[in-house]
Amino acid sequence: MIDSSDGRQLLAIAKQATAIASGLIRSGSPHMLTSKGDRDLTTDVDVTVEELVRNFLCKQTPGLGFLGEEGGGTKQSDGLRWVLDPIDGTINFLHGLPLCAVSLSLLQNDIALVGVIDMPFLGTQYYALSNHGSYVNGQRLNVSTTRTLNTALVSIDQYTFGAGKKRANQLRRRLIERLSPHVQRVRMLGSSAIDLAWTAHGRLDACIMLGNKPWDTSAGVLIAREAGARVLDLHGANHATDSSATIAVTPSLEHELMTAVRATLASTATVE
Known about the structure:
The protein is of the alpha+beta class.
């Protein structure tokens, strides 16, 4: 495990990397689209940002591994590797919506030690170092103090398409149907990184994502946990890198929310 001084240095490098990436995103516009599946796209800006960050981290931290959403991974050193989503919320970016983010984490044996989420069009950078709290632009973060589900703002991740996605989409629909009458509002923001960062910030009281790709969630899971959130899987167990889903919630709402999630899960028929 890296020590505290090394951790602070690596966090500073991660913050610099995501700030550079955000500058490129703000100044660029996509000219080339590549389909990754049914309605799932990547752009030339995604690829350029990933290459820029990869090269920067290679120079700053030689020997550490790297995994990017677009370009895959390189060999790890001592179980340490950077994990990057160059633009989480690409569809929002394509449509000019400001809800997108650069998400970068440093994992050691699949445990996040450093996490940074930089939102280029909102001017906010969220970050955390394991066991040292979470921050946004230098301000310490804490989850919300909401105590009842009927005053809670809850986000659910976006629908996904293609082979094998029917059951997850059915579960999303059922969750929306079950939660909508009992929460203040349900939101669908289109970025897992923003869902988790805003739960850490207390802007959301909970977020539910029926997926757990490391580039989407690893930075945000650390930031949410360091801000006091409970981060769980679909069955209420502590979230891990091999969990099939990612749920972050302010502790006072955990019982109510997870009761609703479990009931929805039990009532959702298996769809292939």
